[in-house]
Amino acid sequence: MKSIVVVPYDSAWPALFEQLRQHLWPAVHDVAISIEHVGSTSVPGLAAKPVLDIDIVIAPATPVSLVADRLSTLGYQHRGNLGIEGREAFRAPEGSPTHHLYVCLSDSEALANHLAIRDHLRAHPDTAARYGALKQQLAREFPHDIDAYVAGKTDLLLEILALRGFSRASLDAIERVNRGG
Fold first, then answer.
1. pLDDT tens, 81-91?
2. Rounded to an integer, what distance in angstroms lies between the CA atom of residue 57 and that of residue 76?
3. Among 137, 146, 135, CA closest to 45
């Protein structure tokens, strides 16, 4: 079983994202709106699992199958939405830098969630420091239990999303997903 490891911020993460973005963009440039670096590695100074999260943003009218076909030419495998509407997950090719790749509809709650948390943490270093400390504590407490690790972060993430204007219904749905309910 793989251990959950949270490491101090690595200043190489933005350059690694840019390398991956430059690799991905030619395959999707005519069907994507943007490629976003999201997740903890996108927040300067934030401790994180050393796994980049990347969202390819597409218009709602763009068929996901078209983007999936393009990504397959780069070795990515479509995994479906994994229970999150408006977000499709892809397995990275063997030997590529460690990252999670998602294709998100531009009007999806999943994308709004990713961007709201990233932007809030970038703008509020005190909250980012609190979040980093929480993640390090949870990794020590639950080194082999990703569900408990994710559930342990939920209250702080919901607090951030509430501050960013997410509705009660949205917060309840996010909580159900994060707590496995």
1. 998 999 999 99
2. 16
3. 135
Type of residue found at 3 = S
Q: What is the full DSSP assignment across 97-161?
A: PSEEEEEEETT-HHHHHHHHHHHHHHH-HHHHHHHHHHHHHHHHH-TT-HHHHHHHHHHHHHHHH
pLDDT reported for residue 12: 97
Determine how β-strand 77-80 pairs with β-strand 52-58: unpaired
Q: Give all domains of the chain, ordered by start, each with its CATH number.
A: 13-178 (3.30.460.10)
Residue 46's identity, in one-letter code, is L
User: Rounded distance, CA 64 to CA 86, Å?
Assistant: 10
The radius of gyration of the chain from alpha carbons, rounded to an integer in Å, stands at 16
Taking every pair of C-alpha atoms in the chain, what is the biggest distance, in angstroms? 45
Among the listed ranges 132-136, 137-141, 165-169, which one has the minimum average pLDDT value? 165-169
pTM, to two decimals? 0.94
CA nearest to 128, candidates 149, 156, 150, 109: 156
For residue 81, the SS3 value is: coil
Question: How many Å apart are CA 67 and CA 78, to the nearest integer?
Answer: 10
Structure tokens given for 87: 């977000």
